[in-house]
Amino acid sequence: MHALILRNLAINTVKIDGKYHLVRRVTKYQGHYGLFPRTSSGWFRAGNRTCPKTGQRLLCTDFVPNSALKQLIKGFCLEKGIHFADSIRHSRDVTKAVVAGNKVSEQAVRLLANFLVGRLVGCNNQEQNRAAYEICLLTKTSIFNRSCLVEASAIPPLLNLLFSCDPSLQENAMASLLNLSMFSKSRKIIVENRGLILILDVLKCGLKVEARQHAAGAFFYLASVEEYRQLIGEIPDAIPSLVELLRDGTDRGKKNALVTIFGLLLCPENHKRVFAAGIVPLLKQEQRQQWW
User: Fold this and answer.
1) Which of 15, 179, 184, 208 would you label with 66, given CA atoms 20 to 30 Å apart?
2) pTM for this entry
3) Domains located in the chain, CATH noted
4) Which residue, 61, 40, 39, is CA-closest to 49?
């Protein structure tokens, strides 16, 4: 199973050896995601803003641990009897790791966060859309910005905007929630505010394909919490909707759905649900299409 999923991810840079057994994913740049070994962080700390592999200029150099790919490689190694040298986990204290630059800029971001959240609540659709778009931009790359928006209580009004009949507003709200879901402290808030059901509604019936893709991506980060993997799997339509996106979505949507499904497979109770949703025949079909 792990080998089949790895082949369908079509990642040709993954090597299972001492240098590349720990892989990280650089946050979105130019519409794509880049895969780099842990040692690449030194390249960016030195002030380089280009990809060390392709030379492309990067709009963002934020690193996000690629837990899904790591688990895929680990599972593949176990199946093949290959030794997997797991890494020592380093604690990430966000309060120490994220720095706005100075006290003035820190306070400015907090004021901006509170202002934008106020616009989400007390304005018309056009202003709400602008605020959601600005929040999406602010939270794309900065952990500090995400923490400020979470502290400003941005999540409940963004979840409410998922009900919007305006396709652009729904998309921007869902994109903002995707970015905020990358911040660990936001996940509990999303779940406690009925976020799983609301995000699932967008995954199933989003007004734009981009909103559905963002919903699948948000589920990926929420599924990084063991408790939430089971909660998502227990929702009857969650896994079938992900499989449907894998079948009928765009390339980006299919990738988001696939890594999210793998994240859910880390919960043993979800195995039968994923198989019942028809994942194996679909992966075989995708594989045949790639060969042809």
Assistant:
1) 208
2) 0.67
3) 2-80 (3.30.40), 103-291 (1.25.10.10)
4) 61
